[in-house]
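Reopening: structure tokens for the iron/sulfur cluster complex, inputs below.
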Amino acid sequence: MAVMKIYIRTFGCQMNEADTEIVKAVLKSHNFEFVEEVEAADVVLLNTCSVRENANRKVFGYIHEIKRINKTALMGVLGCMASDLKNNLIQDPKLKIDFIAGPDSYKKLPQIIEQVMEKDEKYGHFDLSEFETYEDIYPLRKQGVNAWVAIMRGCNNFCSYCIVPYTRGRERSRSLQSVVREIEQLVADGYKQITLLGQNVNSYKYEDYNFVDLLKAVSDIKGLKRIRFVSPHPKDFSLDLIKLMAKRENICNAIHLPLQAGSTQVLKRMNRTYTKQEYLELVNKIKKIIPEIVINTDIIVGFCGETEEDFEDTLEVVKKVEFDSAYIFKYSVRSGTFAAKKYVDDVSEEVKTRRIVKLNAIQKRISLKKHKEQIGSIEEVLIERKGTKKSKTDWQGRDEGNRLVIFSDGNYNIGELVKVKIEEATANVVKGEGCEDIF
Ligand code: SF4
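Re-run output (same inputs, fresh job):
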């Protein structure tokens, strides 16, 4: 068979980006090639997200657009949408999808594509596995500064608003040895930072090893400058983990700690398994042991049954914790979830909008205050790219807290760790001047 050209587009979260790197590695080992333009492709793969109802609509719109540009390419849908909608996707005559493959079916892709080509038949594989971790695949990454390393897949938590446990299946973790081997190779390939990835990254469990054991082993790898991890669940954030973060230089003092809601009643309906008090106590413990910690979060406003009082609880937590930044969303029903079946989406759009506007304004003030506190400090910045919207010669990078830092012209290289003196701050970014010494 002639070499097939693949165009692949990724939607959604970082886990999907990491999965695309696995898909590429699988296909490359079977002599497929990748192209950057849809027009040049024999096969178009869409690695989809299904977390929100409108994520599906976005993909449907994109499929129609692709069909206009390239009428002959085979169309394959991968990821959460394949797992969620299953054969309904390939049976929809308007979409003209040739095959689908769920998140645990990527090793079968070369055979699926060949079979669809040869037999001219539609094909779907979307069974979820209790074991597949892809630990034997070395992902095909774009060269960069940070490498994402998926250490576990799936989720057992069943938050009531979330579709992920249904589309990605149960939790399973890679062997500690396979993670360490992959990261040693990444360091040898020049990566300075790795981010451990998992739906519940700190629920990692392989044989007798837990997340702290894994993090220790990763932190011991020589030459690895920075380690991050996303997303931890508050319920699994142990004291041992906090102490390890405080002790190890190369584990960044930055945490993305999803709050979702500040009201204990709402948290209960969300099935988050912690209370307002427990969340606040966890944050206090973290701040006591790591005073310089940077904490970011996710919040949903207007979840089913959220009263003004409940919303006030969220405001209170936000003010007490003083998150460095927050991703704030309005609740929207996701069909197939527990909340969609059992609760009523009874907070009006108008109220959701009022609450999100208020919360965003408060968070913006806090982010600005926290950024201003950095003025005058010298931060270690890992350079990610040259050029900003305003200047071609300025540099962009991230400090240990994962804050975006822009600094002026200088003789640097992408991937270097440099000292930057912070001189200005907005709610989204801090700006400064590069210092001479390189770490
Ligand atoms: S922890 Fe909750 S929000 Fe996160 S993936 Fe699992 S069910 Fe979804």
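The longest strand covers residues 378-386. The domain at 378-438 is CATH 2.40.50.140 (OB fold (Dihydrolipoamide Acetyltransferase, E2P)). Marking as resolved unless the reporter disagrees.
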